[in-house]
Amino acid sequence: MAASKKIKCTFENCNEYFETSKEMKKHKKYATHHEYCHICDIDFKDWSTATAHKSQMSGMDIYRKTRKQYQREKDQGIFWSNREKFGKDYGELKFHKYFCKFCGAESHTESARQRHTLQVHPIDQGIKCPGCEETFPRAAGLVYHLEEGHCKKISATEFKGFRQHKTMVNKLLQDPSLLSEILSKDMYSFIDAACDHAKEGGVSLLDIKDDDITWDEEVLLPDVPVIKPSMPLEQQTWPALHSAVSNLSIKENISGTTEVGSRKATDGSMKLLAATKASPVANEWQEKQRVIYNEGRSSNILTFQFWNPAHPDYDPNRFWDPLIEKHRCPFPNCEKLFEVSLDCHRHIDKEHMLKKIRCPLCFKVFKSHHALIEHVERSSKCAIKHSRKFGQTLDEFSGGFLSHTIAAHPDLKAEDDGYEVGYVKFKSTVPTGWEKREQVTVSTMI
User: Fold this and answer.
1) What are the residue boundaries of the C2H2-type domain, all occurrences included (predicted)?
2) How sure is the predictor about 335, in pLDDT bands with cuts at 50, 70 and 90?
């Protein structure tokens, strides 16, 4: 048999013989025990060497030129002048497919290869929990850790509260008119308004004009927080507020009184937190605004979790209406009344906590937050992580415990592997108001 077939397979450990060179090359191409590139007609000793070659040559021919390069030369008339060099027409050129560096899987396009690399060979991201500092390879693992109450320092109730607060902020941004309804249920606003005037004479602060005040710039600078945050706060996740929602920040008013009998209070009485010190020194104040924001001492309702029973900001007496002697539900569009604060607490937890967890792009519903984050990480059909508002969406999904950046795959280099892949790199952060929670925890321990 071997006498009639004189062409032996070029692999040393193969004793196959063939009548023609074409049959022998076809054998090497399809034989599972041979590592062979049929485009370049090169034999390789092992799988790793062959895979590295195919990865580097992906999309190119034996002259290391792509279809786009040939098409460009063809349009310019250069290709036809070099036809003798190539020895064949444009349509006869053979190009490598696109091969994965890690497993050698074939793809027909570069985008398909990149998608395969990200899905099948994900990067261990090493995301650290901001509470117990346990490390997780995936963002969904961190969210599962927090959502299921496995963290020793952050309870599942706290995570749920931060997650709900992000949704509340989103609703206020979309419909600022909800703020007036929320403030109308805040009994502290009217109590403060009723106590604005002194009963024993003296000079009223309301009559003092700004021009008569001599400001001490050093004193008026905002205080530096004693407890530093252990994790970075992402302040650029959410877009800047539109002018229509500028009134969401509760400000002092030094030129008006309050009609106590009405439901309308002055801006000065609408304090949901103790107001920070005012300062006319613009530059110094702007430099310290980030510190104040992180400290959680701002009177901005967007950072104040007045409705969350698991948060230090929550005070059931705030929504006790002395006229009807009942607690009002603090949520907008809810007129429920309760005689006992515990009933109000239970109502908030049962009726107003998130029930449907839905992807805002593909509208798929999930049973848990970590399932939604896993969908964001791994799904190839839903392109939410490539959308412009992904940073804001991720911040809401994770309750402020996750942020992201775009990075290059650390194990892929164009000069060595033939291609590069960009991926979404997740990192853990802490939500707004975290420092306030830490201060309460420290004071409780003391």
Assistant:
1) 7-33
2) confident
